[in-house]
Known about the structure:
Elements: H1 2-52, H2 57-60, H3 66-77, H4 82-117, H5 129-141, H6 144-155, H7 159-182, H8 188-195, H9 200-234, H10 242-252, H11 257-287
Helix pairs in contact: 3-11, 4-5, 4-7, 4-9, 4-11, 5-7, 6-7, 7-9, 8-9, 9-11, 10-11
Amino acid sequence: MSDATMGVAPQSVDSIQSSYCAQVQRRRLYGGLTLLIFVVLMASGFNIADNRNAGGFWEGLHQVGDYPADVMSEAWEKRADLPGLIARYFPALIETINIAAVSTLIGAIGGLFLSLLGTRGLAKWPRLIPLFRRISDIMRAVPEIVIALVLIFVLGGGPVPAMIAIAIHTAGALGKMFSEVAENTDLKPIEGLASTGATWSQRMLLGVLPQVAPNYVSYTLLRFEINIRASAILGFVGAGGIGYELRNALGWGQGRFDDAAAIFLLLFGTIVFFDQVSSRYRNRLTDGQGQ
């Protein structure tokens, strides 16, 4: 009996080894084909874009650094004016931060409801889970700048269209992140609250939020950093804030490059500051670090 088993074992090991090698070869083949297709698509797309441009990419490659060099040289020549320019554009920076803060708050509240209503085991109306998930998908699929352009056409320029656009996109993005966190919650506290007759809102408030709050706040802080940059970008389409001032400074060209340099310094310092602060608090919330 043992002799028969010993005779079969080497054959089974060889078959397993050959099957494993065949799978590895197939994976390498599929990986190589995928990489080849990606390279071909990138090369063809680059050639099409280069041919449709007003100027060729390779012909203008040596001029890439000319514009930043002009900005830096003019800013250096007028470096004595930079403190005054920074103070001049600081209110616009505050407006940009306010747009990001309000839109993040509104988006986080919207994302909270979308996540709770679109998570299995937590949703108040289980049959509507696909509906709330598709709403979240649509809200984050449309870029903020597209929403802002439509709202500017309807409402006119200013910070309100930017705030609404960023809030819509934030609600969709955070709704997805919050939902993934909520799916890993322990259902025992919720079942215990349900057995005492607690309503759905009470079960969510007392049974779910204490479990997910650290991750929810962490994702919200991360989104706040992103929204500061988004609100600055939306200023280029007339949505107010420091982005609007930057567009004017760059559009004026030679003679106002010192204004552009001052705005760049303000944006860079603000983003670095909020990145460091939010990273510290996110680490405290999620990992208990930085205490």
